[in-house]
Design brief:
five-stranded mixed beta sheet, about 35% helix
Length: about 160
Amino acid sequence: MRVLVAGIGNIFFGDDGFGPAVARALDGDEFPGVKIEDYGIRGLHLAYELVSGYDRAFLIDAVPRGEAPGTLYVIEPDSVDTAAVPDAHRMDLENVFAFVRVIGGEAPPVTLVGCEPAHVGEAMGLSPRVGASVEPAANLVRRLLEQTLAAERGKKESGVWSKV
């Protein structure tokens, strides 16, 4: 099984740097078949990576949903807007998936691990509440990876798994 863990966000915009901070916290972790990388604002690069044969992807990003800053979310998107037009100067998930569509690929199943930002604007560094959520988010990603890999091992052991 191949799994991608991608930190997303702009470190020059305060709490938008949450995804890269979590990717750095995971740096050095070793899971078989798992690639962990900080994609920052490289949306086109991430789009090409998503279509390169991964079975699953975990994307880590700041996600404003109206809760208290630092709140963590695990979001399983039902679908992705396929009508979006890609913009090479914009890095958000809608844009990444628009590029995936344009290059003719299909992304693997995606889980978004998000954090409620306090401030997204020109600033270096995370706000205190979001900064305090980095290690809990890294631990959450580790648990999700362990569950995903264990489920795959269970499929193989039960004979349900087959390689195409």
